[in-house]
Amino acid sequence: MIPRYSRPEMTAIWEPQTRFRIWFEIEAHATDALAEIGVVPKDAAAKIWAMAKDATFDVDRIDEIERVTKHDVIAFLTHLAEIVGPEARFVHQGMTSSDVLDTCLSVQLVRAADLLIADVDRVLAALKTRAFEHKLTPTIGRSHGIHAEPVTFGLKLAEAFAEFSRARARLVFARQEIATCAISGAVGTFANIDPRVEDYVAEKMGLAVEPVSTQVIPRDRHAMFFAVLGVVASSVERLAVEIRHLQRTEVLEAEEYFSPGQKGSSAMPHKRNPVLTENLTGLARMVRSYAMPAMENVALWHERDISHSSVERMIGPDATVTLDFALNRLAGVVEKLVIYPERMSLNMDRLGGLVHSQRILLALTQKGVSREDAYRLVQRNAMKVWDSYQKSGTATVDFLTELLGDPEVRAALSEAEIREKFDLGYHLKHVDTIFRRVFGDA
Question: Are the C-beta atoms of residues 198 and 181 closer than 8 Å to each other?
Fold first, then answer.
């Protein structure tokens, strides 16, 4: 987590002051519950809130204590006692450090998920707006990087919208999966604390109770959470890579907005590089990389070891902050994306009509020509166009003309039947259907 790729609202979730505030709330709510069942005096529980509810915890002081205790929760509790006074002895009754740490991490990840869901909503809004803007803007579809058949640019964006809709649903599920609380004591048996305390704290912190915990909340929940972040990051990268390809000089069907005063290269003043989407590709790699250590955290020893702790202290902030930044950057790229319909049309025409080859193939088979012979007839004419394209960068041989001049093709298809197969609108006739599937009746 570095400032360059951070946004303040997400970063604030992981600030020490925020963490200590959550720790205090967990401890104070637990003390309230203990007071309700008669384990600690009610006036002591009230005093704890009164003394520390609005306190600013001294991070430097806690760090100073931890240098001696070598234990962060004990350091915090020691500092809390300095604030609260004698009543602090009733804090942390029957609890273990992981009750505080794990429940706090759940709260932080829930808050992070809420921000990420809002980020995806911004991406979805941008994609929807631009998709309808270019719903019928024809462009060439590519498979293996090679011209295939016509699509529309709006369909490309509708596809991304559908993918990010799935991303949103996964984040909602991941949020639910991670939103559990464990206040169950040293090995999860509630030996020294009543289960009602866990119920109370969970409700106050907006969490569900963990059905069965050890000393910790089971880490399969966390593995799922970070795996989902990795999948969302992959969706970010997929759209970013598409934009990068479309911005290549030889294609240039779309490009990132290039602002006044922006520079593309320290050496070459002419450059307009896709730096934002390249950056997103790199950030996606980072977010994905955090999924593996989260999965490796699942297999802890017996009721718990501490091998997961160092991992989570790093990947919790890093993964959520990085993905938050990436999603917002992607939304901005889509919102300002410069699109060139004329270049799309020009590129589509560069192969001299080859994009209609399948229609000719099907027409021949429907006229009684075997598929093998039909394929041979279409391909031999198509290769003439390919050869001319390779030499000049734009086809100088026209596919339609070659077909009309081929006696074997003409034996099966009339001129009118051949020409009819070169209708661009044929490829776009179901765009409305696809849009309704993606966007409903919007």
Answer: yes
Catalytic residue among 143, 144, 259, 266: 144
**What CATH number is associated with residue 106?**
1.20.200.10
| One domain for residues 411 and 308 | no
* Mean pLDDT, each 10-residue run in order, the chain (442 residues): 94 98 98 97 97 96 98 98 97 97 98 99 99 98 97 99 99 98 96 97 98 96 98 99 98 96 92 96 98 96 94 97 99 98 96 97 98 98 93 90 97 98 97 98 79
* Planar angle of CA 54, 77, 1, nearest 5 degrees: 75
For residue 184, give the DSSP letter: -
**Do 51 and 104 belong together in one domain?**
no
Q: Is residue 230 part of a domain?
A: yes
Tokens for 397?
């041989």
Distance of alpha carbon 123 from alpha carbon 335, whole angstroms: 9
Share of the chain above pLDDT 90, in %: 97
pLDDT of residue 31: 98
Half-sphere exposure of 431 (CA within 13 A, CB side): 23
Asked if the structure places residue 387 within a domain, the reply is yes
Q: Work out the mean pLDDT of the chain and round it to a whole number.
A: 97
Of the candidates 301, 293, 294, the one whose C-alpha atom is nearest the C-alpha of residue 216 is 301
Residue 310 catalytic? no
Please return the burial class of 211, using the count of CB atoms within 10 Å of its CB with bins 0-12, 13-18 and 19+: exposed
Contact 176, 110 (CB under 8 A): no
| 104 domain residue, yes or no | yes
Same domain, 26 and 144: no
Do residue 332 and residue 185 come from a single domain? yes
My answer on whether 345 and 371 are in the same domain is: no
- Compute the radius of gyration of the chain from its Cα atoms: 31
Please give the residue range of the domain that contains residue 4.
1-93
Angstrom distance (rounded) from CA 94 to CA 193: 5
- Single pTM value for the model: 0.96
In a domain, 264, yes or no: no
Q: Which of these is catalytic: 71, 165, 265, 388?
A: 265
* 245 assigned to active site: no
Q: 151 forms bridges with which residues in the sheet?
A: 139
User: Quick one: 45 and 131 in the same domain?
Assistant: no
